[in-house]
Amino acid sequence: MAMLAEFRQFMALTSPQGAEQEVKQLLASGQMSAQQFEELKQQAQTLMPYFSK
């Protein structure tokens, strides 16, 4: 449940444009790999139904 609370806080503070910019920066700097991004993207898609209510 703590992960859901953190994700909700992240979503409340992050716009789609801001998230995209952050991801591009992480990928460009090497702090995140394309594989890590895909894994996180899949996790976010799995969690999205819990936040659309």
Textual characterization of the structure:
The protein is mainly α. Helices cover 83% and strands 0% of the residues. The protein contains three helices and no strands. It has helices at 2-13, 16-29, 34-51. The radius of gyration is 12 Å and the shape is globular. The model has no long low-confidence stretch (mean pLDDT 83).
Concise overview:
This protein is 83% helix and 0% strand. With 53 residues, it is mostly helical.
Instruction: Describe the main β-sheet briefly.
Output: none
- The span between the termini is 17 Å
Helical residues, percent: over 70%
Class from helix and strand fractions: mainly alpha
Number of extended strands: 0
Rg: 12 Å
The topology string of helices and strands comes to: HHH
Give the number of helices: 3
The average pLDDT is 83
- Low-pLDDT runs: none
Portion of residues in beta strands equals under 5%
How would you describe the shape?
A: globular
Describe the secondary-structure layout.
Blueprint: H1 2-13, H2 16-29, H3 34-51
Highlighted features:
mainly alpha; 3 helices; 83% helix; globular
